[in-house]
Amino acid sequence: MDKKELQNLLEQVAEGQVKPEAALLQIKTEPYKDMGFAKLDTHRGIRQGMAEVIYGAGKTKEQIVKIAQAMVEEKEKTVLITRMSKEAADYVGEFLDLHYDEISRTGMVGQIPKPDGVGKIVVATGGTSDMAVAEEAALTAEVYGNEVVRLYDVGVAGMHRLMDHIEEIMSARVIVAIAGMEGALASVIGGMADCPVIAVPTSVGYGANFGGLSALLSMLNSCASGVSVVNIDNGFGAGYLASMINHLEGRKE
User: Fold this and answer.
1) Is 1 inside any structural domain?
2) What sequence ranges are listed for the domain PurE (predicted)?
3) pLDDT tens digits for 165-217?
4) pLDDT per residue as tens digits for the range 77-126
5) What is the number of structural domains in the chain?
6) Rounded distance, CA 185 to CA 188, Å?
7) Fewest CB atoms less than 10 Å from the CB: which of 46, 142, 162, 231?
8) Domain assignment of residue 52, given as a range
9) Confidence (pTM)
């Protein structure tokens, strides 16, 4: 149950359509489900508006299946699994209707919801090599109910490629700028856009890139206002934050 469903339930109680006892039964579950090897946060959707996500790296394929099945049993409409190996995806697919993206290593059980965010989220990359991180961000945003516009391979090595998409940049509600090397894309977009820009440094680059550290430091030192930075290769974190921003306006209190 997410915040909207809880609010609708309480409104039904107030209007006499649902008895208080019946409503209590729906929400009277433990705030987490102890599975022994994991504690599933079943109330995160109520607290934060977004359900818990399964981080696949470091988990066995059997553990991923059990957690995903438990979330489905808890009536989660969409289950997102990040950093998931192809082997694990093949195994999970034997038990659940899994949609798997090999580029970003992201799995999803259920359907992508209809977008209910205020505007559009633009996900832009400096190069094609950044697509794995970009797709993780884009799919995360879509799973949380956002319309996503993808602008891939529009880095500063060929500025005309980015300038061809001025309309998308100017009309975005949030922009996720993803780049490796020196990470200049975030500053360029930040100087053009009138919305928040979430910069994602990637580990793409030659030796002096230091696994994404050069891009991270460049983005942290951006002279463009309105640019925030997440960790190296953290497409999920960027997509999640972008979704939170895109759902702020018009939210019922």
Assistant:
1) no
2) 119-251
3) 999 999 999 999 999 999 999 999 999 999 999 999 999 999 888 999 999 99
4) 889 999 999 999 999 999 999 999 999 999 999 888 899 899 999 999 99
5) 2
6) 5
7) 231
8) 17-110
9) 0.80
